[in-house]
Amino acid sequence: MPGTLRRLAIALATLALLVPLTSGAAAALKTGELAPAFTAKTVGGKKIALADYKGKSAVLLNFYANF
Description:
By secondary structure, the protein is α+β, with helices and mostly antiparallel strands. The protein is 31% helix and 9% strand.
C-alpha cells in the first residue's frame, strides 16, 4: 500500500508540472501579430466580434470571474 501511494503522488506531481508547459504555448502571439478573430457575449447577452472594432485605435478587453 505505501508503494502505491508513493507512485500516485509521483504521478500527480509529474502531471502538475507538465500541464502548464503545454497549455497555451501554441496560442501565444508575438509583438506586432494580429489578434485572431473571435466572438463573445457581453454581460447583457449581446454578441460582439473583434471585427466590429476594426479601425479603432485600441480595444480593451476586461475578463473577470465571479466565484
